[in-house]
Amino acid sequence: MGPIYVFDTYAKNAAGRILHFDVVLLEKDPDQALRCAREWLKSIGEDGATVDARNCTYCHSETTVPPEMADEIRTRGYAIYKLEGCPR
Q1: Which CA distances in Å does 13 have to 9, 21, 63, 73?
Q2: Which H or E run contains 4?
Q3: CA separation for the pair 23, 43 (Å, rounded)
Q4: Are 80 and 39 in contact (CB under 8 A)?
């Protein structure tokens, strides 16, 4: 697997709680990162959460990928690295 691109993302759910997570992709594509963020939020039952291009921004790239994240990228096309306020 080549380099990965990390997009620092913040969403606000219907209750006003902030969800902070990284969207990890194989391409430096902000539109795809935003689509993936929304897809993931929907998959965890937070489809009412708001996230937009101002809250999903390219942060950095990495040359190595943890094995569990590589599996997630292969399976889903992206990975999520949960930070603050996200379900574990």
Answers
A1: 13, 13, 32, 25
A2: strand 4-12
A3: 14
A4: no
Q: Alpha carbon of 75 to those of 42, 44, 51, 69, 72: distances in Å? A: 17, 17, 23, 10, 5
Query: Splitting the chain (88 residues) into consecutive groups of 10 residues, what average pLDDT does each group show?
Result: 93 95 97 97 94 94 91 95 92
pLDDT of residue 2: 82
**pTM beyond cutoff 0.90:** yes
Any bridge partners for residue 20, and if so which?
Answer: 10
What pLDDT is stored for residue 78 in this prediction? 97
CATH superfamily, domain at 4-82: NE1680-like (3.10.510.10)
Distance CA 28, CA 58 (A): 8
Task: State the Cα–Cα distance between residues 13 and 84, nearest whole angstrom.
Answer: 13
